[in-house]
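Hey Z.,

So I finally got round to the oxa(dethia)-CoA thing we talked about over coffee. Here's the setup:
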Amino acid sequence: MIYSRIAGTGGYLPDRVITNTDLEAVFDTSDEWIRLRTGVQERHRAGPDESASDLALIAGQRAIAAAGIDPDDIDLIVVATSTSDALFPSCACHLQAKLGITGCGALDVTAACSGFIYALAVADSFIRSDAAGNVLVVGTDVLSRFLNPADRATGVIFGDGAGALVLSRNKEPGVLSTHLHADGKDGDTLGVVSSIRDGRVHGFPYLTMDGNAVFKQAVKRMEEVSREALAHNSLKVGDIDWLIPHQANKRIIFSVCDRLDFDPAKAVITLDKHGNTTAASIPLALDQAIRDGRIRRGNMLLMCAFGSGFTWSSAVLRY
Ligand code: UT7
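And the result:
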């Protein structure tokens, strides 16, 4: 049997840090409100010349180094992003050029905050079908470019960042399952719904979000898709060593843990340091917990996410 397994991970956050106190000068908000209602303490912002593929490059290079391979050993690049450098070519092609490699396939996956698990599912399928041996999977977003300067609700929770992993062919099982779902009829509830036509931007050019509606759906769907993943693998909640949820809001993560009867101390939470980084949030949390020694080889991991689309997804992996 051919399996795919994580060979190495990496992450990158831009240098510029925006604290809650900094945001008190911008919005009618407070450090206390942001901490209590979201759990975010600071977020990072990309510089004016820093694109999604620039962030992806550093995260990707770190993952490649951790995997102990050369960039030339990469057979496929899959990038999850909603804020690519350009409409096209893809962020994955930009990344490939910056990595200094040519020839391997390169494609983007757009599923917003669920994007990293969607990209992982693509990578896993390529490896299991023997079409690739090493796949670089990246989640990268610079959503700060699309934040409405007048909207405090979105202005305080989103940050920029990138996370990556190298998924490699292995005789031992790594990725055990992925489950992907979408319901496109709720598209306007969360997104940047404008378009470019005839040389002009049509529609509102900033992110819009019905925070309450998204919050409720996120809790419901992340519980549901986590249960689906556990049942598919005949696992119990107690078999999971670490939950790596999408990092949108601490209260969402605690509610999901509560509904699953999962110990929240075993949920990796990094959003206090980077806010909601869209497709980067799960690989950033994964990389952090691997590097600080919490996640060890052999641990059973459950990932779950919810985002614009709506999309929701889960993955079960043995690290
Ligand atoms: O990544 C997937 C997509 N995103 C998410 O999963 C995010 C989901 N939603 C959320 O995390 C939360 O809904 C928010 C953090 C965005 C908002 O928190 P909330 O507790 O749901 O606030 P709310 O929308 O129910 O608003 C409660 C009050 C309102 O004031 P009034 O009308 O009661 O006077 C808001 O105007 O809180 C106000 N508010 C704020 N106050 C201070 C909203 N944002 C802020 C703020 N600072 N930044």
